[in-house]
């Protein structure tokens, strides 16, 4: 049922049809869940700090806020190197705004996750106010998170998994990319959805860290 809905969405969005037997990312009988809400909000807070760094916030502000709020362990090594020493590409880290929009949708704050539209308005106002030193605890109380059902998120993950395939095929065939938005929108949202959803079954390892999510398959 999920794949049938995905196929209909692909056609409506102008993406190529999938080859016969294109696999799901889970097996029949697997269980599906979301990561704990506090962990999802923690990833949002980290990405918010990274985006602040992209726009010029100094390490004293971003790293200091993460340290004061007990979020350092949620930061990947490359993210910390970027925030503390400006190692890495700010342009690439800036793309995470679309991953944050996907997380807002997962948490029931964003109204939709339309592949034909870019990040919605109001995201910045929803995120923790690092400049005002809003604490992570206070932000959690303000965030109003109401996570969506895990199955609903998994269905959107399947769609973005297949949309990503369409972009890869266009690149390989030297064709214009399908759809309306640029490919990074789908890639970033798929990254967030892949990390947010956890599957349990005989063929699934432990849920990965943020920088261990496999987007190559």
Describe this structure in words.
The chain contains ten helices and two strands. The chain has 217 residues and is mainly alpha-helical. Helix 1 packs across helix 9 and helix 2 (37-54) runs antiparallel to helix 3 (59-68). The chain has a domain at 37-143. The chain has helices spanning 2-13, 37-54, 59-68, 77-85, 90-94, 97-106, 123-126, 136-143, 150-172, 183-196; strands at residues 31-34, 197-200. The relative contact order is 0.19. The chain has a two-stranded antiparallel sheet. The protein is globular, with a radius of gyration of 18 Å. Helices cover 52% and strands 4% of the residues. This is DUF4272 domain-containing protein. It comes from Cryptosporangium phraense. InterPro entries: DUF4272 (IPR025368).
């Amino acid at each position: 049922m999920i794949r049938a809905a995905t196929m209909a969405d692909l056609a409506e969005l102008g993406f190529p049809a999938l080859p016969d037997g294109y696999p799901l990312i889970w097996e029949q009988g697997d269980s599906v869940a979301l990561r704990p809400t506090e962990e999802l909000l923690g990833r949002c807070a980290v990405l918010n700090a990274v985006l602040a760094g992209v726009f010029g916030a100094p390490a004293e502000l971003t790293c200091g806020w993460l340290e004061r709020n007990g979020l350092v362990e949620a930061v990947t090594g490359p993210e910390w190197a970027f925030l503390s020493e400006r190692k890495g590409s700010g342009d690439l880290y800036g793309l995470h705004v679309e991953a944050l929009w996907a997380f807002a949708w997962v948490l029931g704050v964003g109204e939709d996750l339309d592949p034909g539209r870019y990040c919605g308005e109001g995201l910045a106002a929803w995120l923790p106010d690092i400049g005002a030193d809003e604490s992570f605890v206070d932000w959690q109380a303000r965030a109003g998170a109401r996570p969506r059902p895990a199955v609903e998120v998994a269905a959107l993950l399947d769609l973005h998994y297949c949309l990503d395939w369409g972009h890869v095929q266009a690149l390989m065939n030297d064709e214009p990319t399908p759809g309306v938005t640029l490919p990074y929108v789908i890639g970033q949202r798929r990254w967030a959805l892949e990390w947010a959803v956890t599957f349990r079954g005989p063929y699934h390892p432990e849920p990965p860290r943020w920088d261990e999510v496999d987007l190559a398959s």
